[in-house]
Design a protein that fits this description.
The protein has 434 residues and is α/β, with parallel strands linked by helices. The protein has 2 domains: 1-327, ANL, N-terminal domain (Rossmann fold, 3-Layer(aba) Sandwich); 332-433, ANL, C-terminal domain (GMP Synthetase, Chain A, domain 3). It is 33% helix and 23% strand. It has 13 helices and 21 strands. The protein has helices spanning 7-10, 14-35, 37-46, 67-72, 106-122, 141-153, 165-174, 184-196, 201-204, 219-229, 341-349, 379-382, 386-404; strands spanning 88-91, 101-104, 130-133, 156-158, 179-182, 209-213, 232-239, 244-248, 256-257, 263-268, 282-288, 299-305, 307-308, 320-321, 326-327, 332-334, 337-339, 354-365, 368-377, 409-413, 428-430. The strands form 6 sheets. It has a 6-stranded mixed β-sheet, with helices on both faces. Strand 16 (332-334) and strand 17 (337-339) form a beta hairpin. The protein is globular, with a radius of gyration of 22 Å. The protein binds adenosine-5'-diphosphate and zinc ion. Adenosine-5'-diphosphate (ADP) binds next to strand 7 and strand 12.
């Protein structure tokens, strides 16, 4: 098992890497200006010409792009190549509004798979492995993305897609899956069904790791998954606009490696748009350095994270992003207090009596917002006396208040009450806008 997919690039000294980025950035601005009426207009309006971009620092001069630009130019108005060069289309799941269409040239698919091949290698997955791909196949980028990455490293892909959980578990046993890629919430469901079938992931399967992403999840959730199933749980990040799932942690589980020869990342203050220094949390902005069909310049993904630039213990020199707190628009404001579902998850998962399934319900009563945190408890706890349950409710309420300063109603519910998800879990039900 090689330690690196491409050691020369993955361990390239930071200064050299920056030079590569600078050269690619200069080529990129020229390319989009010449090939996309959208960018030409945007640059002209901002009074910027490709010649103004001479160094990496000049990236700041470039205007941002946002999801709305993709919507306004739906379906392919931001593409830089004619249809005959497009080998594939995907469309976003539309979590936050009208879906957007993305497209790839042959080389775009190759670069995307290369990014994943590096990531898979960095978590010790390769030729010997059997990867069960439980992300949805179809318009969603998760399934096909992981599939191509798997084939590139020479591992065996099982394209189960999501759903049909009992069959997934049978295949996991019969074909000896050593890794599974799916949303963390779907893996929780798989684990539950496994137990119902009288099987234990730790003892009755060969699974050694999970590649979990497409939705926010917390360190506390990672700990629980690892303890309960005996696997290593790795974080993977990406969005359809920048290709799909692209970047993973390495075995040190200390941030997600972003390949700097392919992508330039910044973190900005979401209010002012000003770049923030390393280590400060803000909104992730990505410039795709090598994409041909749909290059994006300073694309505001909307996810909140922190950049760590120092090289990782694994020897890779590329920058890392730390666990994603969520998107700016996942944030709910309850009586003036900002709450991210991930923060609530972190608090809940620190309380051993509660299980992994939860939901936030926000309602409006008159002029007041009301937050209810529904969380399942374990079978044993649920059969306890009512007075014990009430005590536990109080304990959860108090923990939420201490950590997040929110007062919400806590509702402990029976195991199996909260709907299970096959893909991205719906953690928030905001009835205020319904
Ligand atoms: P949509 O925008 O329609 O949901 P995508 O499938 O492209 O379509 O979703 C990408 C989004 O999913 C990211 O912007 C981010 O909010 C979320 N996401 C993906 N991976 C992770 C992860 N590992 N941790 C937290 N959030 C993630
Ligand atoms: Zn590393």
């Amino acid at each position: 098992m090689p330690e690196y997919w491409d050691p020369l690039i993955e361990r390239m000294p930071v200064e050299e890497l920056k030079k590569v980025q600078e050269d690619k950035l200069k080529q990129l601005v020229r390319y989009v200006y010449d090939h996309s009426p959208f960018y030409r207009k945007q640059f002209d309006e901002a009074g910027i010409s490709p010649d103004d971009i001479q160094s990496l620092a000049d990236v700041k001069k470039l205007p941002f792009t946002v999801k709305q630009d993709l919507r306004d130019t739906y379906p392919t108005g931001m593409f830089c190549v004619p249809q005959k060069q497009v080998v594939r289309y995907h469309a976003s799941s539309g979590t936050t509004g009208k879906p957007t269409v993305v497209g790839y040239t042959e080389n775009d698919v190759k670069e995307w798979s290369t990014s994943l091949a590096r990531g898979l290698t960095s978590i010790g997955v390769g030729r010997e492995d059997v990867i069960q791909v439980g992300y949805g196949y179809g318009l969603f980028t998760g399934g096909l993305g992981l599939h191509y990455g798997t084939e590139m490293v020479g591992a065996s892909a099982i394209p189960t897609s999501s759903g049909n959980t009992e069959r997934q578990i049978e295949l996991m046993q019969d074909l000896g899956s050593t890794a599974i890629a799916c949303t963390p919430s779907y893996f929780l469901h798989i684990n539950e069904v496994t137990k119902k079938m009288g099987i234990s992931i730790a003892n009755d399967t060969k699974l050694k790791c999970g590649i979990f992403g497409a939705e926010p999840w917390s360190e506390e959730m990672r700990r629980r998954i690892e303890e309960q199933t005996g696997i290593k749980a790795y974080d993977i990040f990406g969005t359809s606009e920048i290709s799909g799932p692209l970047f993973t942690e390495c075995t040190y589980q200390d941030g997600i490696h972003i390949w700097a020869d392919q992508f330039l990342i910044e973190v900005i203050d979401p209010m002012t748009g000003e770049p923030l220094p390393d280590g400060e949390r803000g909104e992730l902005v990505v410039t795709t350095l090598v994409k041909e069909a749909l290059p994006l310049i300073r694309y505001r993904i909307g996810d909140l994270t922190v950049i760590k630039s120092e090289p990782c213990k694994c020897g890779r020199t590329h920058p890392r992003i730390m666990r994603i707190l969520g998107r700016t628009d996942d944030m709910i404001i309850v009586r003036g207090i900002n709450v991210f579902p991930g923060q609530v998850e972190a608090v809940l998962m620190g309380i051993p009596e509660v299980a992994e399934h939860y939901q936030l319900i926000v309602e409006r009563e008159g002029e007041l917002d009301r937050l209810t945190v529904q969380v399942e408890v374990t079978e044993n706890v649920f059969s306890d006396k009512i007075s014990d349950l009430m005590k536990l409710e109080k304990k959860v309420g108090k923990a939420l208040h201490t950590v997040l300063n929110i007062t919400g109603k806590v509702e402990l519910v029976e195991p199996g009450t909260i709907p299970r998800s096959m893909g991205k879990a719906q953690r928030v039900i905001d009835k205020r806008n319904m």
